[in-house]
Amino acid sequence: MLFFCFFFQAEDGIRDRSPSRGLGDVYKRQSLSYLKLALTDRDESKLQQLQRDLADEGIDSVFSDPHFLEITPKGITKAHSLIFLGQYLGIEPSEIMAFGDQENDIAMLKVSGLSIAMGNAQPQVKDIANEVTKTNEEAGVAYIIKNYY
Protein backbone atom coordinates (compact mmCIF):
# COMPACT_ATOMS: atom_id res chain seq x y z
CA MET A 1 0.00 0.00 0.00
CA LEU A 2 1.41 3.36 -1.07
CA PHE A 3 1.25 6.13 1.55
CA PHE A 4 1.84 9.78 0.79
CA CYS A 5 2.47 12.83 2.89
CA PHE A 6 2.75 16.47 1.86
CA PHE A 7 5.44 18.62 3.44
CA PHE A 8 4.36 22.20 3.19
CA GLN A 9 4.91 25.66 4.57
CA ALA A 10 2.15 28.08 5.46
CA GLU A 11 2.49 31.72 4.51
CA ASP A 12 3.17 32.53 8.16
CA GLY A 13 6.22 30.26 8.04
CA ILE A 14 4.85 27.43 10.21
CA ARG A 15 5.75 24.04 8.82
CA ASP A 16 3.34 21.13 8.95
CA ARG A 17 4.31 17.52 8.30
CA SER A 18 0.91 16.01 8.99
CA PRO A 19 -0.35 13.27 6.69
CA SER A 20 -3.04 14.35 4.31
CA ARG A 21 -6.54 13.06 4.93
CA GLY A 22 -7.10 13.12 1.19
CA LEU A 23 -6.56 15.35 -1.80
CA GLY A 24 -9.69 17.36 -1.03
CA ASP A 25 -8.20 18.29 2.35
CA VAL A 26 -4.96 19.34 0.64
CA TYR A 27 -6.69 21.56 -1.90
CA LYS A 28 -8.52 23.43 0.86
CA ARG A 29 -5.15 24.72 2.13
CA GLN A 30 -4.78 27.44 -0.48
CA SER A 31 -2.37 29.60 1.55
CA LEU A 32 0.33 26.93 1.53
CA SER A 33 3.34 26.39 -0.69
CA TYR A 34 4.44 22.78 -1.07
CA LEU A 35 8.04 21.81 -0.34
CA LYS A 36 7.87 18.15 -1.27
CA LEU A 37 5.71 15.09 -1.66
CA ALA A 38 6.88 11.95 0.13
CA LEU A 39 5.83 8.46 -0.89
CA THR A 40 6.50 5.27 0.98
CA ASP A 41 5.87 1.60 0.39
CA ARG A 42 7.28 -1.63 1.80
CA ASP A 43 7.92 -2.84 -1.74
CA GLU A 44 11.07 -1.00 -2.91
CA SER A 45 10.55 -2.13 -6.50
CA LYS A 46 7.28 -0.18 -6.73
CA LEU A 47 9.03 3.01 -5.64
CA GLN A 48 11.97 2.38 -7.99
CA GLN A 49 9.54 1.95 -10.90
CA LEU A 50 7.69 5.08 -9.86
CA GLN A 51 10.99 6.99 -9.81
CA ARG A 52 11.72 5.83 -13.37
CA ASP A 53 8.21 6.80 -14.50
CA LEU A 54 8.56 10.23 -12.90
CA ALA A 55 11.94 10.75 -14.58
CA ASP A 56 10.35 9.90 -17.94
CA GLU A 57 7.92 12.77 -17.28
CA GLY A 58 10.74 15.16 -16.29
CA ILE A 59 9.91 15.07 -12.58
CA ASP A 60 12.80 14.99 -10.08
CA SER A 61 12.69 12.53 -7.20
CA VAL A 62 15.22 11.06 -4.77
CA PHE A 63 15.23 8.38 -2.10
CA SER A 64 15.80 9.52 1.48
CA ASP A 65 15.51 5.90 2.60
CA PRO A 66 15.06 2.70 0.54
CA HIS A 67 11.31 2.88 1.33
CA PHE A 68 10.87 6.66 1.09
CA LEU A 69 10.74 8.49 -2.27
CA GLU A 70 10.60 12.29 -2.23
CA ILE A 71 9.41 14.56 -5.01
CA THR A 72 10.57 18.17 -4.74
CA PRO A 73 10.31 21.21 -6.99
CA LYS A 74 12.50 20.96 -10.10
CA GLY A 75 16.17 21.52 -9.31
CA ILE A 76 15.75 21.83 -5.53
CA THR A 77 18.18 19.68 -3.55
CA LYS A 78 20.13 19.72 -0.30
CA ALA A 79 22.97 21.26 -2.33
CA HIS A 80 20.87 24.41 -2.81
CA SER A 81 20.28 24.65 0.94
CA LEU A 82 23.98 24.15 1.65
CA ILE A 83 24.95 26.89 -0.81
CA PHE A 84 22.29 29.23 0.60
CA LEU A 85 23.45 28.65 4.18
CA GLY A 86 27.09 29.12 3.14
CA GLN A 87 26.29 32.43 1.46
CA TYR A 88 24.35 33.58 4.50
CA LEU A 89 27.28 32.71 6.80
CA GLY A 90 29.96 33.95 4.39
CA ILE A 91 31.42 30.44 3.90
CA GLU A 92 32.43 29.01 0.53
CA PRO A 93 31.11 25.52 -0.31
CA SER A 94 34.75 24.38 -0.52
CA GLU A 95 35.05 25.17 3.22
CA ILE A 96 32.05 23.04 4.21
CA MET A 97 32.10 19.45 5.45
CA ALA A 98 28.90 17.50 4.77
CA PHE A 99 27.76 14.07 5.94
CA GLY A 100 25.22 11.84 4.23
CA ASP A 101 23.87 8.35 3.90
CA GLN A 102 21.06 8.38 1.34
CA GLU A 103 20.48 9.30 -2.30
CA ASN A 104 18.97 12.66 -1.32
CA ASP A 105 22.37 13.64 0.17
CA ILE A 106 24.39 13.11 -3.02
CA ALA A 107 23.98 16.61 -4.49
CA MET A 108 24.97 18.17 -1.13
CA LEU A 109 28.01 15.92 -0.82
CA LYS A 110 29.14 16.77 -4.35
CA VAL A 111 29.04 20.52 -3.70
CA SER A 112 30.74 20.44 -0.29
CA GLY A 113 34.48 20.78 0.13
CA LEU A 114 34.72 17.55 2.13
CA SER A 115 32.08 14.88 1.71
CA ILE A 116 31.76 12.09 4.23
CA ALA A 117 29.50 9.08 3.85
CA MET A 118 28.20 7.32 6.90
CA GLY A 119 29.25 3.69 7.31
CA ASN A 120 25.65 2.63 6.74
CA ALA A 121 25.29 4.79 3.60
CA GLN A 122 23.89 3.52 0.35
CA PRO A 123 26.64 2.29 -2.04
CA GLN A 124 26.14 5.20 -4.47
CA VAL A 125 26.71 7.64 -1.59
CA LYS A 126 29.92 5.94 -0.51
CA ASP A 127 31.12 5.97 -4.13
CA ILE A 128 31.06 9.78 -4.39
CA ALA A 129 32.24 10.64 -0.87
CA ASN A 130 35.79 11.73 -0.04
CA GLU A 131 35.73 9.58 3.11
CA VAL A 132 33.55 6.99 4.83
CA THR A 133 33.08 7.12 8.60
CA LYS A 134 31.40 4.87 11.12
CA THR A 135 27.65 4.23 11.00
CA ASN A 136 24.93 6.45 12.43
CA GLU A 137 24.54 4.02 15.32
CA GLU A 138 28.30 4.23 16.00
CA ALA A 139 28.24 8.07 16.10
CA GLY A 140 30.13 8.45 12.82
CA VAL A 141 29.82 12.24 12.72
CA ALA A 142 31.23 12.61 16.23
CA TYR A 143 34.02 10.17 15.36
CA ILE A 144 35.19 12.29 12.40
CA ILE A 145 35.00 15.57 14.29
CA LYS A 146 36.76 14.22 17.39
CA ASN A 147 39.52 12.32 15.59
CA TYR A 148 40.27 14.57 12.63
CA TYR A 149 39.24 18.11 13.49
Task: Pick out its properties.
6 helices, 149 residues, alpha/beta, five-stranded antiparallel sheet, globular, disordered N terminus
According to DSSP, the number of beta strands is 8
Q: Find the structural class using helix and strand composition.
A: alpha/beta
Helix content class: 25-40%
Distance between the termini: 45 Å
Shape: globular
The topology string of helices and strands comes to EEHEHEEHEHEHEH
- The fraction of residues in strands falls at 25-35%
Mean pLDDT, as a whole number? 82
Determine Rg (CA atoms, Å). 17 Å
Number of helices: 6
Spatial ordering of strands, largest sheet: 2-1-3-5-4
Largest sheet: 5 strands, antiparallel
Uncertain parts: 1-32
Task: List the SSEs and their pairings.
Blueprint: E1 3-10, E2 15-16, H1 23-27, E3 32-40, H2 44-56, E4 61-65, E5 68-71, H3 78-89, E6 97-100, H4 106-111, E7 114-117, H5 123-128, E8 131-132, H6 140-148
Parallel strand pairs: 6-7, 7-8
Antiparallel strand pairs: 1-2, 1-3, 3-5, 4-5
What does this protein structure show overall?
Helices cover 34% and strands 26% of the residues. The chain is an alpha/beta fold. The chain is globular. Mean pLDDT is 82; it is low at 1-32.
Quick structural overview:
Helix content is 34%, strand content 26%.
